[in-house]
């Protein structure tokens, strides 16, 4: 039996919808205000300095960029791996991929020392720079996913969805490899300089992207009164759990490898034992609240049936991911560069000491602005284009499911 | 009738002359500027570098003060964001307790990581080994600062108004030691830090051409040796240290 999915725009006339838009516009305004303040007064009004040169805006930006490639998972599973059940959600998946990336790039550009020189970044290239590659990877990703969306939404082009989906899938793997390599290629810093950062970022993109995607799906279906069956939700939450476990695996291997090398004991002790906020964020934010608790919630035989629990798990994974990126990006810079191995060093330029960094309000504003921009574009797009299916009730997802719905509930609950 | 056909030669001559004069005035400064640079500039085939003897270098700060005065780098009384092109680092050997003080600045690597990672090519290395930032194409992404193993670079965190003509600086861009490139391009063969080290300090620094075996720096390196900071990274810096 072939299933026909009907897509429909959201009405977008309710007070709730306009309230959401107003909130997101306010968030975008905060971001623009932060950018204006920075370009007027310079970066000294942020918490960033000559020792921690990338701060909270980069945590937000890299979160969004990584989540963007991960948000495309559902579309990839549908068109590359041929799982029909995910097909109705593929357009939303592609849309989120584009908007999250746009939000992340907006933050990165507005945090440049000279955002007015964006045209320079677009016209002068040093092809040995992973950053320059990323400019092509990001713009290319947007273009490919835009074509992919077009092929999905335009019935005449549906036949070509699979090859474009395949290209998009390969491209997103390369893109996240590129993002991880921004850090992996930094030979001088002890917390970076590791090839495993590339696959770690890929796994992270799978988990963060899917967590964001699930939250957006649950919210948009609930707010527009569209039926969302347990079947699709259950599959997605199980997949999310596997991705979270994969991230944990790469994190474990990364730290075990470092712990084996004596020269890296200092940086490992800093992250794992005595790094203050970074140690706290690692163990409490990233590991306990961001990985272990969500895993328990997602795979608990009873709790995981509740949508509130699945939503909470997604929220925790997102917060854990932010904590993880904070530890990687800022913790990695805060730990002093070891210019003179075997020596203690001190200077007026913060040699040999943990670099001070406290995120300032403008950094939060810029980060929130990027997130708001991404969500604003989603909210507007689903009103004017048919991204959301009318129903994802169980019988619309799996034709064989409907007659056994009562028993199916119990058998699939425990994952 | 013949009067009507006769062209107005005086006006034509005037216009031709004026165009010629304007063209000459426009092009000439460029030609003469290039000639001036070519005559006084850097030495072909040279690799400029520094040698610092940490056994002689003391507690003084003369090189730092001189560098920052020369290049118009001033403190904003904000230690975390203040630019420092050169700094004195105190190091203590953990096993012996032996303490030394030495200046650290851009090491002008042969294989500079800052140049590798710069997305626009604003970080570049000249033929004569000096690593610089093109202030016109730096977008202020700070990736070079992430990549530099020596913490040699500073980002300008506030608007500046008191720049010197020979040391362009500006909010939102990255900067570092230029090895006093403005002096070298004028034909001088020393830097502000080395000059101050000899006049006010202990004479611990030597500037010169690493590719010239007869230069003071090459002779000292050949006789006493010299090591690079983080030599393990294989970057072959142009700044060498003795007594490390």
Could you explain how this protein is built, in words?
The complex is a heterodimer of chains A (415) and B (244). With 415 residues, chain A is an all-alpha fold. Chain A has one domain: Formate dehydrogenase/DMSO reductase fold. Chain A is 67% helix and 1% strand. Chain A has helices spanning 15-41, 56-71, 73-79, 90-110, 118-123, 130-153, 161-184, 197-223, 230-260, 265-274, 277-299, 307-334, 361-384, 394-397, 405-412, and one strand at 343-347. The longest helix of chain A is centred in the middle third of the chain and has 31 residues, at 230-260. Chain A is globular, with a radius of gyration of 22 Å. With 244 residues, chain B is an alpha+beta fold. Chain B contains eight helices and nine strands. Chain B has a three-stranded mixed sheet. In chain B, strands 2-3 form a two-stranded antiparallel sheet. A two-stranded antiparallel ribbon of chain B has the order 4-5. The longest helix of chain B has 32 residues, at 9-40. Chain B starts with a helix and ends with a strand. β1 of chain A pairs antiparallel with β2 (86-93) of chain B.
